[in-house]
Amino acid sequence: MKVKGNNFSLDAKDIKILEILQEDARQTYTTIGKRLGIAHSTVYDRIKRMEKYGVIKRYTTLIDAEKAGAKSIMAIMTIITDPKESEHVAEKLCKMPQITEVYTSLSEELQIIAKVTAESQESLHEFIASRIAPLPGVMRIRTSIVTKKFKETQPIITGDQKQLTLADKNKV
Amino acid sequence: MQNEKELKPLKTVPREKAFYFFTSIGNYTGESASSLVEFMDKVNRVDVKSLEFHFYRGDFERWFSEVLQDEELSEEFRKLHKLNLSGEPLRGRLYAIVSAYIKRLKFNKSM
Description:
The structure holds 2 protein chains of 2 kinds. Chain A is an alpha+beta fold. Chain A contains 6 helices and 4 strands; from the N terminus they run H-H-H-E-H-E-E-H-E-H. Chain A has 2 domains: 62 residues, Orthogonal Bundle (Arc Repressor Mutant, subunit A); 73 residues, Alpha-Beta Plaits (2-Layer Sandwich), CATH 3.30.70.920. In chain A, strands 2-3-1-4 form a 4-stranded antiparallel sheet. In chain A, helix 2 packs across helix 3. By secondary structure, chain B is mainly alpha-helical. Chain B has one domain. The radius of gyration of chain B is 14 Å and the shape is globular. Chain B starts with a helix and ends with a helix. Chains A and B meet through strand 1, helix 5 and strand 4 of A and strand 2 of B.
């Protein structure tokens, strides 16, 4: 699997390391090495290389906001925009701390999908009415308040296993 | 000479101070009003659910009072709550109040 914008390629062992880090990023190089049957120094080198090329962007903490005592609600907004203003609207949304994720999607109309958090339904409405609706290019907004979270994980890395196996043989 | 305070409701407010019509929490219809005249026009056109949503929350009187700085119109809307109107009768009543009010303001302006 070739890394976008670089000559650097990921092989099957790199992918395995990423999968293990996604389970728990605090595992030691030795633990990861033992699981994969490789030396901890190899794990170290590969992780450093993936950090250098931006494959690993950062190590963060997944917090259960409810258990942490945060009284907040989460909602998914679908914002229908004027296609000419869509990028601009998305950029503005990215700058707002209340908005945690922003995507564009093309169905019948150009849409922006964004995840937003607020203290209450009232503050959510106030935020959307005073900050989102007035943005030039916003045509309509549909908001769904999340009532229960069933799953939240990072996306799983997948690749062409045959190609990865060949790359693996050549490199390791 | 006309009092500037009386004419304020007829002015156009900036985009961020406009009234944005929603049908429920976070669901924006795409309709907005930047002046009282535009508001009257939108009252006639928006989904009646939107009028009901904002009316029962007291959003209209809050906008008249805080943005247009018109306590008189705000008070007229506040009084309407006693009548428990909904649907098209609510739309008709809101439109009648605002249009009569605008006519009065324009008449005063021309004097």
